[in-house]
Write a sequence for this structure.
């Protein structure tokens, strides 16, 4: 009894923190938004076909949000999310439709190609010391050209029926592509929170100097982050190819804003050192609800982008104001400045390290 009582007492502070967290706020918004849309549609939004369609086209936003989140956790940006996803989707489609490659092999090649491009991007950033923003911008331009070279002006729709069946399959009205996205999110959460490699990623993004002094190669963490980002984009290309009636040069063209919006709204810091897997998933739900509301009320699509952009900007500004407030409180007279962890302290007389550990 004493042990149960102690566990309950220890759980209460965690529950209080969760009740005030961004994740809890997003969960309430998702539930309220879903109920509101169901009521406004006279209950049709709660029916099986509507639920299936809603979840089917939610899989890709979840995956691209997670892909961007991994890059953000080490203080990087990935502007090539949409271009890489579109290229991988068209590559899968061309392999199946034009060259008769079996669906399983075509999907494997597409996902591995996206992962390899992510790896090469990370290596190029480290080798050249060019800002990741510039490198991924260049990668995006190259991949857009490659995507057009693969598909041209046509829509590739003659690919494997097996892959189409995967996109349409929905036991109990829960699409398999949505289950795939949730499984990827669960595996990523386990990797980030439970493994040494995941904690090193967070350490490298949160305090690069302390990470280097602790023997963690920040260069390797950047390469790993872009590789994981590429892998998740490849899986997103798979879900998009399976769900869409065909792929063409427009696939991935509208992925960039949602890829940033999901992790930022979900509570991920732009400065690195943090992840919010559940928050990112819930933020993708919110954006999908906004898109469903646009279709329900026949709103102009530009208003959806305007609203999402406004929410992202407000989230960033609010986070900045909150951080400034905390900094001012920390510098208030009479307050003792926090003592940095031992791994963050510089040895007496030592010069700060500026280069990454190879």
């Amino acid at each position: 009894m004493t042990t149960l009582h102690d566990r309950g007492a220890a759980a209460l502070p965690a529950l209080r923190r969760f009740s005030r967290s961004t994740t809890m706020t997003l969960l309430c918004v998702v539930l309220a938004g879903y109920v509101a849309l169901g009521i406004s549609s006279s209950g049709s939004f709660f029916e099986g076909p509507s639920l299936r369609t809603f979840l089917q086209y939610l899989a890709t936003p979840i995956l691209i949000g997670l892909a961007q989140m991994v890059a953000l956790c080490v203080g990087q940006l990935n502007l090539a999310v949409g271009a890489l996803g579109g290229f991988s989707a068209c590559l899968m489609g061309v392999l199946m439709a034009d060259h008769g490659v079996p669906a399983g092999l075509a999907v494997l090649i597409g996902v591995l190609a996206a992962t390899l491009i992510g790896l090469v991007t990370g290596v190029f950033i480290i080798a050249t010391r060019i800002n990741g923003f510039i490198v991924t911008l260049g990668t995006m331009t190259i991949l857009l050209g490659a995507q057009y070279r693969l598909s041209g002006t046509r829509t590739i729709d003659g690919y494997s029926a097996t892959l189409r069946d995967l996109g349409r399959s929905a036991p109990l009205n829960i699409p398999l592509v949505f289950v795939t996205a949730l499984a990827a999110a669960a595996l990523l959460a386990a990797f980030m929170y439970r493994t040494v490699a995941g904690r090193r990623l967070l350490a490298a993004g949160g305090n690069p100097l302390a990470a280097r002094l602790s023997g963690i190669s920040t260069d390797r963490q950047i390469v790993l982050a872009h590789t994981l980002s590429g892998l998740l984009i490849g899986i997103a290309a798979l879900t998009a190819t399976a769900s869409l009636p065909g792929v063409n040069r427009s696939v991935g063209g509208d992925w960039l804003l949602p890829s940033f919006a999901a992790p930022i709204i979900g509570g991920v810091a732009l400065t690195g050192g943090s992840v919010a897997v559940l928050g990112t998933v819930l933020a993708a739900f919110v954006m999908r609800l906004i898109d469903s509301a646009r279709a329900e009320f026949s709103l102009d699509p530009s208003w959806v982008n305007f609203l999402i952009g406004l929410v992202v900007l407000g989230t960033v500004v609010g986070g900045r104001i909150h951080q400034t407030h905390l900094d001012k409180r920390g510098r208030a007279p009479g307050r003792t400045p926090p003592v940095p962890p031992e791994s963050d302290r510089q040895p007496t007389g030592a010069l700060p390290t500026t280069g990454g550990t190879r």
